[in-house]
Amino acid sequence: MSYLWRLFLSAVIALPLIFLTLSAHSSPISITQITGTDFLELGVDKMRQGNYQEAIENFNQAIEVEKDFAVAYSDRCLAYLQLQDYHQAVTDCTQAINLAPDNSEAYLNRGVTHYRQGDYPAAILDLNRAIALKPSDFRAYYNRGLARAGDGKDSEAILDFNLALTQIKRISTLLLADIYNDRGLAHFALQDTQAAMLDFNLAIRLNANDYRAYFNRACACGRNGDNFGAVRDFSQVIRLNPSNAQAYVNRGIAEYRLGYHLGAIADLQKASEYFENQGKRVAYEKTLDLLKNLRQQISSVTEIALF
Hints:
Blueprint: H1 36-49, H2 52-65, H3 70-82, H4 86-99, H5 104-117, H6 120-133, H7 138-150, H8 154-167, H9 173-189, H10 193-206, H11 211-223, H12 227-240, H13 245-257, H14 261-277, H15 281-306
Helix pairs in contact: 1-2, 1-3, 2-3, 3-4, 3-5, 4-5, 5-6, 5-7, 6-7, 7-8, 7-9, 8-9, 9-10, 9-11, 10-11, 11-12, 12-13, 13-14, 14-15
């Protein structure tokens, strides 16, 4: 991570929750006559179980029975998206759109796929179309907000996150927490630390087990010079996600600022071990460099204090 070696990491970019739904619901299937819809519903069941490859096989069967089955293409796109086969996901969503131009789910799925590929302008275009077709769909606003944030348009992203919140009818508190967390990131990027802190606090209140919100709030504390708060929140990140090397690095820096030199060295050593085990060679070497520099600074302060 290119900014790892600054005083504090930038707020972690939370992975987008796709907030997508499948286009069919399961129902009893007759053994005597299996239709394309039956195969589709089997695929939907497999998707809900997390068996994405088996779901694709069922969607394939649905398409074999009904060649122009737009919903099957759209749902198969979602399965490929979960498997990170983005090329095939875009191909399937495009086919679904060609067969049914008013299919908002296909535009939504393709938009999310473009986002995952880092093609934010294409994602925004597709999500614009999804919103035009279904203006009440909070998922489209939320994902467009993520795409706009990825494209550096944080003010517009905040507007989309606000719209997503106004369109939500019934949703779990965990998903609501993610929206606040991502809106907080947009505020943070705009240097509005106060607004960011408010959103991170809301996210934590709604989901006390989401390490990302604690990480982000810790970064906001660091920006405000609240090193005690940063240590507190990075410690919470480590409790929830013990192998989070970035949290160890940042907690170590906050501890160094507070004069907790032994704790700082221990955290940087632990971070280097995790980076090495995770195969992150560049981060590992940078952490060793940072550890060396901190040791030299600590040694220099100690020597001065002796005179």
